[in-house]
Predict the 3D structure of the following.
Amino acid sequence: MKNKIRKASSDDTFRLAASLAKAFDDDPIINWLVRKDKKRAEGINLLFQSCIKDLCLQHEHLFMTEDCSGGALWYPPGTSEIGYIKQLSLIPKMIPVVAWTGLLRLARTLAKDPPEKNYYYLQFIGVIPGNQGKGVGKALIKPVLDICDRENCGAFLKCSKETNIPFYRNFGFTVTKKTFFGKDSPPLWLMWRSPKI
């Protein structure tokens, strides 16, 4: 099956956020971050809506499948850092996501550990469970990796599931560090891909 990929627009926000919420439902970091009460599902949806609408769309490197079953949120070089003013403006939107008690955990996730190189940052890539294992992830990741190779630019991501490391290795990513947002957080694997020239 050929997976048709296109750039997402603001009209796709709610459908794509819902698909990413399904894809990340069992993600250790997402589940550490979001609220644990009866509003958890709504919180995960709101998290992805905000990532799409408030952060990623403006950089025009948000790709999705035509059927909206998956998406990849990328940031071009120099755009992945969230300034303090932007962080403050997002707090009211994040309270329904993480609840008041989760604001400290959220603040820890905003602290970056980026490489000291020029890179595209892959914040999220996800496919709904029913479409996983069909080449959709490969189709979603490829457009920006092709750009990286053309521009002689690296790619960087934070992998939140150890079982996903082999997927990224298939595209030339290597683990550079295992880290934690805090003592109570699940691990993250920082991964780097040098451009293929």
Q: What stands out?
A: The longest helix spans residues 40-56.
